[in-house]
Amino acid sequence: MSGILYLCATPIGNLQDMTPRVIQTLQEADLIAAEDTRNSIRLLNHFDIHTPMTSYHEYNRVEKAKQLIEQLKAGKNIALITDAGTPAISDPGQVLVQLCHENNVPVTSLPGPAACIVALTLSGLPTGRFCFEGFLPSDKSDQASKVRKRQILQELARETRTIILYEAPHHLVRTLKELHEILGDRRVTLCRELTKRFETVTPTTIEKALQYYENETPRGEYVLVVEGKSLEAVRQETQAGWEAMSIEEHMEYYVSRGMDSKLAMKQVAKDRGVGKREIYAYLNKGQ
Question: 110 - beta bridge partners?
Answer without folding.
Answer: 8
